[in-house]
Amino acid sequence: MRVPFEWLKEFIDINESHHEVAHRLTMIGLEVEAVEQVDSDVVFEVNVTPNRPDCLSIIGIARELSALYKTPVVFPEHDVLAETGELDFNVDIADAELCHRYAGRVVRNLKIGHSPEWLRKRLEKCSIRSINNIVDVTNYVLLELGHPLHAFDLKTIKGCRIIVGTPNRVKGQGTRIKFKTLDSIEREIPEESLLIWDAERPIAIAGVMGGMETEVSDSTVDIFIESAYFEPVSVRRTSKAIGLKTESSYRFERGTDIKMLKKALDRAAYLMKEVAGGTICGKIDIYPKRYKPDEISVRYNKVNETLGLKLTKQEITDCLDGLGFEMKKLANSLKIKPPAYRRDIKREIDIIEEVARIYGYDKIPAQLPRATIGIESPEDRKSGSAKVKNDIKQALLKSGFTEVINYSFMGMQDIDLLGIGEYDERRNLVQIKNPLKTEDSFMRTTLIPSFIKNLVQNLSHGNRELRLFEIARVFISQKSEVSSQEAVALSHCRTECSLPVEREHLAAIYYKEKSKALYRDDTPDFYIIKGVIEAILNNLRIYDYSFVRSSEPFLHPGQSADIFIGSRLPVASSQSVKAGYVGALSPAIMDSLDIKAHKPSVIVMEIDIDRIIPYAMQVVKYRPLPRYPYIERDTAIVVDSLLEAAMLMKWLKSYPSDLIEDIYIFDVYQGKNIPEGKKSIAFNVRYRASDRTLKDDEIDSLHKSLVDYILDKTKGQLRT
Questions:
Q1: End-to-end alpha-carbon separation of the chain, Å?
Q2: CATH code at 214?
Q3: pLDDT tens, residue by residue, 561-590
Q4: How many domains is the chain built from?
């Protein structure tokens, strides 16, 4: 907003230079972006924030300076007396919810012409062109007092009547209105838009612009001045719907002062008589919805606690005295009612901000806050979840992964892409009432769809190697499952339900484009990520875990595994819980993504952190280093191709012997020299005694017994 300094000084006695005033305004939140020299005057370009419509006027800026300098505001002359009797004019407010107050005054026998030079120059300094003395006065009062006015040619108002209402209310449902505004453009008006009507037709769009048929012209003699308060939401909706923004709509949609409209009306009538002659007639003021401010309690100690100051009660009230608040002083607090022009004041913290502004932000000492980074609940502190998540994050960062933060939203199409079954809890979706876009209308029940989108976006930008991870919450509704057909109906559901279950998940994706090369034997990507998971679990001191063939529909059936925690056996058991899964995306999903790369392999994994926390950070039991050497034996057996390596490990570890120290599988092979439907599994057994050095004969006999035991269990044969 442009504010001429000389005009401002008519409202408040200021002895400081315009540079100092500009600085003070900036320091209280009204940033002066520029200072322009215009003739012998100076014009401030003030950036007014959307929550302060009261400062979109000269008097609004003057009130702020009044609070700073403790100097009273001098209100411009506006008192007028009607020179004729009662008006033969009626005003009806059909939509009191959209128009809280409507006032008007008739001025007769005016002489339309050019405005005096002082009026034209002030409007020009504020970037408003002069039209005629009557219209210029309405614009002048708009800038001066911040309240929009409109002048109608009285003889064009049919039936000496004003009706304020929407087309639905005045003409009935389904009425289509076309209206030509002052800019000579015919516009179609939405049914819910508020209009000003005479006895027969609409004559203005409330709060936005008047109509061509009732404009003030050179032949105008008598006028009707309108001053009203329109609901901000209604004006904003109408302005956006018809694509028209004006100085009036700019102020109305932010909220004007409902108590100022009477003064603005009288001030306009006073100035019109001064610049155009005429006779001032009676006034109409319909006020169906009166302004009732809420009382706000402000605690003295809360002010100091929030601002980090030690202000006395008197200093606090001194800061608020000049802001127009109605205050009641109590022993430990203030009861405050904000004026009608400060509708942004609604809570105690708003009052505290006013104290800070007037006291001076520059006077508040800099002090580091006494706070920890992040919020850890007592439950998190007891379970150690914060440390677990931090250890996981550090382990992944050390493995070359980059942390990402995705939106917590997904769509039904993401669940369908993954092929998740109808009765899977991941279909228990939580509907978002106001989604950013319809494609992401639900809260995530799995993090994998976000990583698929990350993959596609990175590949489209030429990134051929990807290691990403995220730790975030998933949300599982406790309502019944949602099918694809029910998803649309769900968006219209407003029934209350219990809060969703929230779980902390870790998810990651690994992608590396393969290239042909000689003399190189790459480790399969699946085993790289499986190794990362094992490193994470071992770092958390979780050793009782197992990998079992996964049944997740979106993973490659031969390159995937579910992760189970809680059983010391290498397979899932009744004592274990499924903590997550790892695997390559299925060929069907890869085909749908249309990734044009040489043998693409995309590995994803997801772990429920909440399920592994109870098993993490177990007490470490130390034992002395072995005093005697070990003996190793390698063996390969040919078994049925459907036999899982994990089951073989279960049988190996179940063999009763105190001399077996460790067992691991180091090779699985299918191909040449192996019968069809069979595979070779090679395993290593390490033997050691705690009290002696073992002899080969003893171990040969023990190992043969172990192999015979395994061959009996697997129904396999020894590979030679």
A1: 92
A2: 3.50.40.10
A3: 999 987 544 455 556 789 999 999 998 888
A4: 5
